[in-house]
């Protein structure tokens, strides 16, 4: 196996496609050198194969020979020799993995300097100060990175030298003193390592290569890969390259540039440069940079050469590139290029523009792959307009977007403040149905308890309202909230970011760019590609939600949760009357009132989705969710302050409380226990559909039963629909499908039987995940998940990305068995995985018919479906 | 298809094996007639095929012709004709299904009587009173059963006749008046049906046959089949048989008999008879019966004939039989025989005796199949010694056996009463760890909340202590408990039956027969048969439990739950100190104390099971189970009565409380979150094993991790064992296996990966069922399950009998995948299904290596394993 490849090695395929072998940096250096023939300082890449071999079994056989041969070749090409006392060759050793890991891994510059060659450098540059300053920097860098010596020691010596010289800036230390400093550095190395500082450039290079290999498994790099989901087995490549010096004189310089504006996608000249400087100086912000356009004034020829290179890069990479370049004594050197990072807006606008660009001619498929879900997220939600603030605390980002407002601790106060015209952030330990009107009145919600499916999280996401939940550092005390030393009182302003989970004091500026007009076009392309494969529906529980969903391009409603209709301020008392009813007549009366109210709700939703399918899930949550908190009632009881009403509520709360509500009397089980409830809902829905149809509309109703575990249970529920249809005389062509959620492992395994009754399945992958893992999301996501992910006990959070192993196997089994019983069965996913691009890719593979997600995720899901199909080929 | 078979029809196989076709009664009548050639009144059977055809599509084509032909044949054989005015043939029409359903279905006697033949009967018997009394009974019976007329009307007329005659007894009504009564009965029928009472015997018979068919789907019959798990599709056969009259004169009589004592299994003459009586009189208990042995004095010839028949029946059926017989004018007629019901004791003793009986020569396999799990249950637990009591209320039978004692409502009071020497029944809403010492001091436990895996149920079963849980009619009020109008106060005596869930006031006598010596022999045969297939272990958490288990024949411990060690009165404070620890040092100190204590526990258990494997499950329940009830603390808080200690406990209770504890931080998750806890347990266990080994013992330790969901998680846990072994220098041949419970669907699906780390799997089918169904047993078993079973939404309670569909599929998948990764992986089941015979049969099919159950179930499981293997062939 060959480990070392010079930048102009004749690979059989374009080196830009060899990132797995050469790393990103190495691949692009080779591409620029051998394909584009741009001015790149010569060098070579040691492959990721070598790194993996090194990690598994130490320095690989034959690698020394290959590196030596490559160094000799490099010396020949550059006409310089390593360690040469006259004109030494200096090299950089840089890591470069397949995926960019900025700042995570190590680089050593100026290798080749030693006691002899430093003099050569001084002679060549006629600048001993520069030469010795380079040498001292090299020693300190090498000692830190390769030899693991604490850099504080070197800083201490440096400070001493400045003190001796009476100067403040490193650059003002005279050459004479730098010579001593180099000596002191070398002694420090010798005393720490027991060995003199290596003088042999080859030994230096070997050390640096090993350090780069080793940095792959440094704790920062591992943590970064965990976060980004990068495979730990990839390893890094190492690039050894001849040094060029942008800081040689005023005819030199260095800069970075972008072929288009990475913020907006506009064409033009974007970037920064510095005269007489090295790359680090541009990034570090020590000196004030000049806009790249100014380069034309300093070095007109170099500027035009660079512009020409920009054009060639874009045509070649068919994308926006960023570059690093250095000018050494008037000559332009390209040090790096890559496809550049960009904002969502820029990504979108460039992708569309490049499909019409005569040179680049992106296909629609390519354009679609250029936009990431994060890009869309940025465009669709408000964000903090600044990054300059102090984080107060962090919770779970439960509903994306940022919000600012005054803090209120009760829903009543929130509503009053909202009525006064204030921006409100509702801050609660957790929310309950009693808080719904307070949440509605708020710009954002912050809770100290609960996970990503807590009441606060689910309700907020449904409304697209920013929410941070489970911020467990918040301590409620004395009518306020304490976080460490900070006390937040009612009326104080805070800002929350529901995308990142960040909370900060005070009012930060927010911004949300209007999505550019290119968005509609791109999503139209996506839909064209997805047609006949998978469509995207929305989870929407009200007419207004349904309208938003339709505006975002939803092709129907995949999940209409009827419980949210029960929680409205004017409904909850009726629901409680139903639960508390002493007689069947009282219960019937309450149900009747609910039926009238729900029929109106359904009518609004069906109208908003006229012509498109609407899947209505019958009541799912356990009844105690509609009752007040039992603990508060018990405390009242012990205080003797229960009212008559409270007494009844307490009795009901005791009757309906459960040890494990997730696994208790909910879903269709509630329908079996209280059949009147479900039949009422079915009637309300079908009546609404009939009304719309009579008014000339085109309703498509899908009745969905939650939490099914057996075919007889579903057949039992089916009878309710049949009866209601018969009662209403609604068999005159009303389009009604009957189906079930598949959210218990049993339902998945018995899908063949269940499909004999169900005309569609909607996979509730959230509950399916909870049951497959034995995870209560509320309980494990905050406490346990971070440890499990950090320790590698799970590959990813299965509530964010659907579990490819067990959960997807169950979905796949259910899909196959369901289809074997009913070939035309409609299969979908409702639940949060339906809005997650990685999960969508899994569902596309299984060939499901639709995914359904919150209205605000619909554009992302539309994109993700198309991307998955393109990637599947 | 032939529907009608005379009793001597030449079937190709022995009619006794045709119960599915002829029903139990018909098959045995045919067997007695055609094979044994016993004196059986002639007749024929209408098959279950006819019944099924009738239920599906009404009276089957051709059935009338077949019945008519059979009736003609019957007339010829008996030399009598239906409706004959001289000497009429009378017949009975009786139901007889494949499985006995006593009292559930209909019988009509004396068919063939009409206005003409009644005179013939009077002439033949020279007893007009008898003839008209028979006719009046026939009309009333027919009217009730076939025509659905309320029998109250007939009773009213009968009372009038007695009043007119001035007599008290039906039998004293003179013939003349009976003639008028018959007339009145017929008029009643005519006015109710609009038709005269049918005079044509064939019409009468057709009506009776249809009534029997119809009674198969009567509500009582359906309910019975639900309870007994009998297939609703089987249908019943109908037997039409010539009547004989045991009530003809004093040379006649009727009786029932058993070929051995059904209570003890002893050989001898058992049964009852009555002179001049009909079968009903024996059963109804109107007249005092005589012991069967007395028959010899009345009818010596008949007696010896009967004894000879008994011998032939036993040899033929190779089992104890019961019979019904009638003597008509000195001639013996056999009316029915079947393999008789028996007590557990009798079943066991007869099975063993019949293997050595030279004539019967049962094989060991046959003998094993003769004993049902219920038989063993009867023998192993105390029962109420009477059936004469009034049921106060019923809950879930959570732990079998009966107990009596005085009621105490707190554990403290229970302990004090126990110390005074009283028998105690602890009555609580539900129990918690704080109640363990109170439970220990009680003879039985009764709770008003919770299901079969509630704290009370699990702890009581573990100790073999009777318990009734979830008796939700109990209302706690004013220091007592109310059930309807009854108030139970502290110190009142009650009796509970944890097998049936029955609760009654007062002290019932209890009995438990010492298991007969034959038990050991039989179970030894069972073990011989099971060797090399499946062994039975016990769930035992302490040395004494382990000793009991070993005495019951357990081949090791399949589940030692370490949490019960944490709940002992002297341990709980240490556990709480660990949870509340402010500093790592405090926590370590508490863990250290627990380690010392647990080592002792483990040593006792390993000693009791010396030479046999002991599977120890590391701590499973969530930590809040070791803390006091949070609601009580919250109430104290609101009252301002929290102590310092309470405050800390409240804080901890808040930290560790969970929305769904079943799905929260428990099992290995706890180990990941608090590694010190698990490593402490592993160390304590391995130290105990080393100590036993050093003392010359032979410990076999199996460390079991609960609730695994992924291979890396299990590997993480494995490291604790490796470390502990290394620390203790315990690699000198200590036999330690490492494995996991498979109780999440994910673990089942990923068994291939998990088996790379696990050397054994133990299926936790209780949790696996909860997760597969999305059922919290505590929440659904009391409230929902009865409805689900009654409505047929589930075939059976999946917590009692393992779900053959989904759960067994997961076990099967896991077994296959586990073996594919590790062919010699040991596979077992711990959890209650491991003691359920039906479930054991499923596990035997999959080829698991062992089941583990509570010590008191071990004999039943040993039997069930052998029976399954015999049945599998």
Architecture overview:
2 copies of one chain form a homodimer. Chain A contains 36 helices and 33 strands. Chain A is of the alpha/beta class and 873 residues long. Chain A folds into 4 domains: 52-92 and 99-242, Acyl-CoA Binding Protein (Up-down Bundle), CATH 1.20.80.30; 253-342, D-amino Acid Aminotransferase, Chain A, domain 1, CATH 3.30.470.20; 382-512, 3-Layer(bba) Sandwich (Glucose Oxidase, domain 1); 532-622 and 658-872, Phosphoenolpyruvate-binding domains (TIM Barrel). Chain A has an 8-stranded mixed β-sheet with strand order 14-24-23-16-17-18-19-15, covered by helices on one side. In chain A, a hairpin with a 4-residue loop joins β23 (493-497) and β24 (502-505). In chain A, α4 crosses α5 (128-145), α24 (630-639) crosses α25 and α27 packs across α28 (711-728). The radius of gyration of chain A is 33 Å and the shape is elongated. The interface between A and B is large, with 54 and 54 residues.
The strand order across the widest sheet of chain A is 14-24-23-16-17-18-19-15
Give a quick account of the main beta sheet of chain A: strands, pairing sense, barrel closure: 8 strands, mixed
From the alpha carbons, calculate the radius of gyration of chain A and give it in angstroms: 33 Å
Biggest interface pair, counts: A-B, 54 and 54 residues
Low-confidence stretches of chain A: none
Q: What does the average pLDDT of chain A come to?
A: 91
- For this structure, the CATH topology of the largest domain in chain A is TIM Barrel
**What class do helices, strands and sheet pairing of chain A give?**
alpha/beta
Number of domains of chain A: 4
Strand percent estimate of chain A: 15-25%
Envelope shape of chain A: elongated
CATH-scheme architecture of the largest domain in chain A: Alpha-Beta Barrel
Number of DSSP strands of chain A? 33
Oligomer: homodimer
User: Can you say what the CATH homologous superfamily of the largest domain in chain A is?
Assistant: Phosphoenolpyruvate-binding domains
Protein name (chains A, B): Pyruvate, phosphate dikinase
Cofactor (chains A, B): Mg(2+)
Family (chains A, B): Belongs to the PEP-utilizing enzyme family.
Keywords (chains A, B): ATP-binding, Kinase, Magnesium, Metal-binding, Nucleotide-binding, Pyruvate, Transferase
